[in-house]
Design goal:
Number of helices: 7
Number of strands: 4
InterPro entries: SAM-dependent_MTases_sf
CATH class: Alpha Beta
CATH architecture: 3-Layer(aba) Sandwich
Helix content: 40-55%
Distance between the termini: 24 Å
Radius of gyration: 19 Å
Strand content: 25-35%
CATH topology: Rossmann fold
Order of helices and strands: HEHHHHEHHEE
CATH superfamily: Vaccinia Virus protein VP39
Largest sheet: 4 strands, antiparallel
Number of domains: 1
Protein name: Methyltransferase type 11 domain-containing protein
Organism: Stomoxys calcitrans
């Protein structure tokens, strides 16, 4: 991630400029993959998780981590805010969406894709969280994530 911000810094004009970035340092969808990766049935397909997961996914203080990184790169007037968010899906929409964006689905044999998505959805519904992610009465699932808004300046040289 440091290299990405160094590249952004270099792209800004020497006379200065600023950046505004909206990102998600933590997304609960990866917790479901972690859970499935511990099952013999799916572990062979869920390798290389670090390639798809934010380096801030398990960081206790992603805001401070980002502020430090921005300062190390040379940015000034840095503002970083993290917000707890969640998105509510219907059960079927959740499975369709996760199937569409899953970085692992291409590794799963065609005959097992539906089973994989069912197991994944169940793993997500059973995650230990501050609140219940799955609501049985209306068959909805909430997907928690952290939103991070980053603003920083490159001072004129």
């Amino acid at each position: 991630m440091g290299q990405a911000f160094r590249n952004i810094y270099k792209l800004l004009r020497p006379e200065g400029g600023d950046i505004l970035i909206n990102t998600a340092p933590y997304v609960a969808v990866f917790e479901g993959y972690t859970s499935l990766s511990k099952q013999d049935k799916w572990s062979a397909y869920l390798y290389g998780m670090e390639e798809y997961t934010s380096s801030l996914q398990n960081d206790d203080n992603p805001r401070q981590h980002m502020l430090d990184l921005l300062a190390d790169v040379g940015f000034t007037d840095c503002f970083v805010e993290t917000r707890e968010r969640d998105y509510k899906y219907t059960w079927d929409a959740f499975k369709k969406n996760m199937r569409a964006i899953s970085p692992y689905i291409h590794r799963i044999p065609v005959t097992k894709k539906d089973e994989f998505m069912n197991d994944y959805a169940e793993a997500m519904a059973n995650l230990e969280w501050e609140y219940s992610l799955y609501n049985k009465s209306d068959r909805t699932i909430r997907m928690p994530y952290k939103q991070m808004v980053i603003y920083a300046k490159k001072s004129p040289k």
